[in-house]
Amino acid sequence: MAYTIDKRIIYSVIIAVIIAGILGITAINHMAESRYNDPEYAQMYKTDELIRRMEIYIQNNPEDIDAIYELALRYFRDKRQYEKADALLKKALQIDPDNTEIMSLRATVMEDSGALDDTEKQLRDILTINPNDGVIWSRLSQLLFVSDRQQSLACAQKALDIVKNSGGDIKHYTDWIEALTVFEKDVRSKPAEAFMRILDFYAAQERLQLEICDMALKYIDDVDVSGITPILEKKGKLEVYYNDNENAIQTFLKLIDINPQYGYGYILLADRLNIMGKTAELEELDRRVLLLGNDTTEKKIIDAMLLEANGLTVESIKAMESLLGQGKYKDVIRYHLGMMYQQTGDNGKALEYFYLLLKSTDKTDFDYINAIKYDVDSRRESLLY
Description:
Blueprint: H1 5-22, H2 30-36, H3 47-60, H4 65-77, H5 82-95, H6 100-113, H7 116-129, H8 134-144, H9 149-165, H10 171-186, H11 191-199, H12 206-219, H13 225-241, H14 245-258, H15 263-275, H16 279-288, H17 297-309, H18 313-323, H19 330-344, H20 347-358, H21 366-384
């Protein structure tokens, strides 16, 4: 099974076409066929409908492990239903017990769900089958960083040796070993810098990023305002990513307590308070933000959120749209405008703002967009279908 994930998405297209035959849907015109071949096939159906069709296919083809893999990927990536994804992958492994690609996805599902001990076991099971898999040794190294840094370094060296001996590109592996070495040298004297450098190696591994942020907060003193600010900001956004809004609120509260001059901290906190319907706390924040000045963008955004919280949605929309030209916090503003237009029934404007948010070329706040993307995608799907 040497497919990439992108090819598996295309594979789901093929499954859908087969299902159409099973269901007796044979009159597929040329336009429909061209859409089935689109890698963005999921746009044609609600995710739930696509999953339903795939489940029907698997009922009729219970040993098609490629289809099972794809459905598990859908449950994991599109629905965040870890238990269903894991159950499907276990089923696939009953058919093909030594399939390391399925085991690798299962380790990813376990990791994202927070089952880190199970993740380690699954990765080691892969290495039992293929001890010369440098990528898996590297993944194990990154996982072990949060629990056993000495073993993490040993696994990193093992990964490098394997890749070097096979003639592969070793840059990532040498960079990771260097980062681990520098980390041990700097973690006591410059902990914030040390942890931020390490976090750069954990793209698309949100659960491990969150674990590392928690580690960092044990090393960084609250008086190190410049050091702790980016860690708290990242931690709060990761909690938003996992829909852990109560803890995100507490994290952002701590952020502005420690760094009361940090305007973005007020915006992030206001964002979550507004989402959670905590109007009284939002009003208190509106008073606190005066510390930054009476006519700041931060104050105006929170005022606009309060209008919406008090039922004045149209007025809030007008206030928010007037702030887009100021250049600050555009992604937060677009997110809330999309939600408010959705609330008023103007689906076209809602979709426009959600589209602008997700397609933003301003990558200064990628973490925020990533944190809310799951919610935005769900909202867009409900509006499109």
